[in-house]
Amino acid sequence: MITRKKLINQYIEFFKTKGHKEIPNSPLIPENDPTVLFTTAGMHPLVPYLLGQSHPLGKRLVNVQKCIRTGDIDKVGDEHHHTFFEMLGNWSLGDYFKKQAIEYSVEFLTKVLKISKEKISITCFAGDKDAPKDTESAEVWKKLGIKKIKFLPKKDNWWGPAGNTGPCGPDTEMFIGEVEIWNNVFMEYNKDKRIILVDGMHCIYDENFKLNEELLKIINHFNTHTLLVVNGFREKGLNLIKNNSTRQDTNWKAFSLEESKIKKDNPKYFKILLKKFNLVPEEVIYFDHDKKNVETAKKLGILSQHYTNITQIKEFIEKNLLAFIPLKQKNVDTGMGVERVVAILTGINDDYLTDSYKPIIEKIEKLSGKKYNKDKGQIRAMRIIADHIKASVFILAEGIEPSNTEHGYVLRRLIRRAVRYGKEIGMKNFATELVSPILKIYQEDYPELKKNEEFIREELAKEEERFEKCIQEGLKVAEKIFAKKTPILRKKFVHLMQLAEKTEILHQTFNKRREGKNYSIKEANITQKEIDNAIINGKESFLLYQSYGFPIEMITEIAREKNLIVPQNEFRKECLTHQQLSRTATQGKFKSGLADQSQATTRLHTATHLLLAALRIVLKKPDIIQRGSNITAERARFDFSFPRQLTKQELKEVEDLVNAQIQNSCEVKRKEMPLEQAKKKGIIATFSEKYGEKVSVYEIGDFSREVCAGPHVENLCKLGKFKIIKEESSSSGVRRIKAELLDFDKSKE
Asked: Are 377 and 383 in contact (CB under 8 A)?
């Protein structure tokens, strides 16, 4: 009987006989790709090698890779979708290509796994403006005896890039019945931002070198490499731009041939430019005020635009910035999902009954007192719980903690969604109970699980406890909100949810509604009035998110169960409104960094006063000042003036000093006095321009005295334990600390 381990072993050993070298499993947090949060495929760690760098083990590689994908999280709960999964893959880095890759696939499927050719069906890329129809792959399949072949568009038969940019290409996919089991991706392209060639005089600045600030801001916003291309005054123009750019100044370089007096209306100019920077015409876009220069560039294959106004150039860049550039090295990247293939080969047709999941499902049955095969709703809940807690265990093993940002937000979302479904089948305080069966399945292959078991259990328990404290109250508030709405008729709503393009339809609907256009949903015969009556607006969804810790995806899911809809654009707008509270205005004026006036936010606000005082003491820099903050109910983000990264020891000392003050349970006293008097007393008044002549001064014993508008707690005993989550650079000369308060006893509020 096929098992997870047996399939992995068969795959790797097969490709070793074909000259492939096994490479180790990589971390779930990508090391070389900041555009994605998690490793979503085996190719992630190989991106540099797919782009041409030589791999130390050669051109043929094979491995099994742990992966996290949340794009299909709504589909988790069916037989085959997961957020965590293991992927088998083999790679050719500039070695064999389509023909040999497909031959290997057929051999492995039919000779090793003993699947008959009649059961295999294939899809290939249908072609579009970016790449031609993949008839080459289809012909290879036919010659090998595979008869069922379909051509599908990019949304079905194109893979990558894994992030916003990177290697990508058409793929050919293999199916058994309706289930995809394997795909071969032919990495022929690199999706990347083009370099922008920017005209100097009469575009980015005038003949008096007065800067076109609006155009510069737009170009810098795209955050791509930019070349100032001029006939003369190269250095003067570049310095003008760099001196007026923030953070993006390193993206700018300049080019001219003023020494040889070759100008932009001469083809030699662009030929030399391309050669100097090792570029091909497809890698750049160009705009210029002079039509002659534009025409010269066009003749060399450079996508070019005559500059007439800023709006036109902004649209030109937006439309053409990203490009599919042919790779010099053609690669093969394949992916086979372990869980799906084991299910298919054992005839189960349910991944959750394979040995990758069955022990977890059995534990859920025991904890809930429910049976996996009795009720569709229970089955779905058990699958979601098993998948999400498994994914959470692997993320926690990477040292990630639940939070409201990036990796931590995904982790929090997974745990809380699992807890919510656990409640539906009568489970409580169960997350840590599922760690043992997960470790039993995987710890031999992933030793980091056992190594970090204590941390995994602690964080699961804490996050479940946090959510338990507010979920019941939050659900009651949600029910009150929902009760005011009129649900869309069930038949219409089900039809809408069954549409493959439902996400895009709803996105367009909400945009049209915002723009005052007709936003009825014709595909499901839903009128504008029905939509209006069924909407959970931005303020309502933000309340559930901010006050009760419900991720927006959970709010959307709960609402859909009631035939209601959540415009996520309204939610995002509400989030942005609150984020503005903590942003520094362009003139340096500070706006309140508190997201709200809740007790949790107030506690963290008081903690930042302690943090600033501790930083001054530990770093022996009494002139450190606050440069901004963003404080929510969950965490504080605090920016301060300091030129370098803090050491681990310094961070520990800061943390310990803050906690020592908290343990002293000092009163927080408020006094009023004239601003000038406060300054004379040496009281910190960082943002004095926002205060009036008379100010509030908050004192915490002899440790901290600051001018502040509040609010603050009355006594430090209300704070709990202070913990620094992260320390990083915010901008030049400014560091950022993210921190939270733990173990707070709610009865003290």
From this structure: no
Q: Are 141 and 149 in contact (CB under 8 A)?
A: yes
Q: What is the mean pLDDT of residues 242-263?
A: 82
Please return the burial class of 692, using the count of CB atoms within 10 Å of its CB with bins 0-12, 13-18 and 19+: exposed
SS3 426: coil
Q: Distance between CA atoms of 109 and 102, rounded to whole angstroms?
A: 11
Q: Looking at residue 242, what is its pLDDT?
A: 86
Note whether 627 and 640 are within 8 A (CB).
Answer: yes
Calculate the alpha carbon distances from 548 to 468, 481, 600, 633 in Å: 10, 14, 12, 10
DSSP code at position 84? E
Burial class (CB in 10 A: 0-12, 13-18, 19+), 549: buried
Measured distance CA(331)–CA(354) in Å, rounded: 33
Provide the pLDDT for residue 530: 93
Q: What is the pTM of this model?
A: 0.62
Distance CA 458, CA 455 (A): 5
Supply φ then ψ for residue 371, to 5 degrees: -105, 140
> Which tokens go with 352?
């959750």
For β-strands 226-229 and 166-176, DSSP reports them as unpaired
Residue 120: C-alpha distances to residues 14, 117, 175, 183, 274 (Å): 20, 5, 6, 12, 47
Local structure of residue 44 (DSSP, 8 states): G
| Whether 534 contacts 556, CB under 8 Å | no
Please state whether beta strands 120-125 and 148-152 pair in parallel, antiparallel, or not at all (unpaired). parallel
Strands 252-255 and 226-229: parallel
User: pLDDT digits over 161-173, tens only?
Assistant: 866 777 889 999 9
Q: What is the per-residue burial (b if ≥16 Cβ within 10 Å, else e) of 70-84?
A: beebeebbeebbbbb
3-state secondary structure of 152: strand
Q: What is the DSSP letter of 730?
A: E
DSSP for 305-367 reads EE---HHHHHHHHHHHSEEEEEEEEEEEEEEEEHHHHHHHHTT---GGGSTTTHHHHHHHHHH
Measured CA to CA in angstroms, residue 80 lies from 123, 337, 339, 351 at distances of: 19, 10, 8, 6
Q: Which domains does the chain have, with CATH numbers?
A: 4-190+328-350 (3.30.930.10), 195-320 (3.40.50.1000), 361-470 (no CATH), 485-578 (no CATH), 599-748 (3.30.980.10)
CA angle 41, 47, 51 (to 5 degrees): 140
Q: Please state which of the ranges 326-330, 514-518, 586-590, 622-626 shows the lowest mean pLDDT.
A: 586-590
The secondary structure of 641-693, three-state, reads: ECCCCCCHHHHHHHHHHHHHHHHCCCEEEEEEEEHHHHHHCCCECCCHHHCCC
